[in-house]
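Researcher: Good morning. I'm working through a list of sequences from a screen, and I'd like to move beyond sequence-only analysis. For each chain I'm collecting a predicted structure so we can compare shapes side by side. This is the next one on the list. No need for commentary yet; just the structure.
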Amino acid sequence: MIRYFIVIFLFTVTSILSQTTEPKVSIQQSEYDFGNINQGETVNHSFLITNTGSDLLKLSDIKASCGCTAAVPDKQELKPGESTQIVVTFNSTGRKGPQTKIVNIKTNDPSNPVIKLTIKGNIIVSENKEKNAGAVIYFPETQHNFGTVKEGDVLTYNFTFENKGTQPLIIKDVKSSCGCTAAIVSEKTLKPGQSGTIKVEFDTKGRLEKATKTIAVISNDNKDPNKIITIFADITKK
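Model: Good morning. Structure tokens for this chain:
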């Protein structure tokens, strides 16, 4: 009987000792809401993690729920009583509306082998950004009047255009309404903010009176893929 109580006593002591030498992860705050974020902003928040146990706490296999989120700890091993900051960074580029992202971290705490850090936010897209999303072709002027000219004259005019969007603008084709008109594009691909020109040539040979010619500029602008520019002339005999 005495032997039985000794075994029970030793088992109890061993259990108590094993419990008191375990690491224990404690998080001051496991969730953070950024509120409204302007699209394109990169925001970050520091989470405080502390080892409140009596053995070395190890943090490993830190994974975010998407590539837009990154988590970097100051330390990955914490002695009893030590703390570390885990900075979670979120890039809002290309996103809009409510967002929830989670960072999973593995620990050697037997009672809490995986901890989750959650960040939230609402991505706000300004009206100008929404309007100019993608490629946007913009002409300061879409018409030009040569006025009165002589038959046989070859007329030229440069139309300028700009990419006011957020993605590269690609000029796919330029089509004239007749063979008497040609259009030459200076650049077929424009980065956001870049400008180019379209040189329009109109041969008036064999033509008289008022003439109207159009050129269709075909691009990857989703809202206006076929932009029309127009030239006018009043052709008289030499």
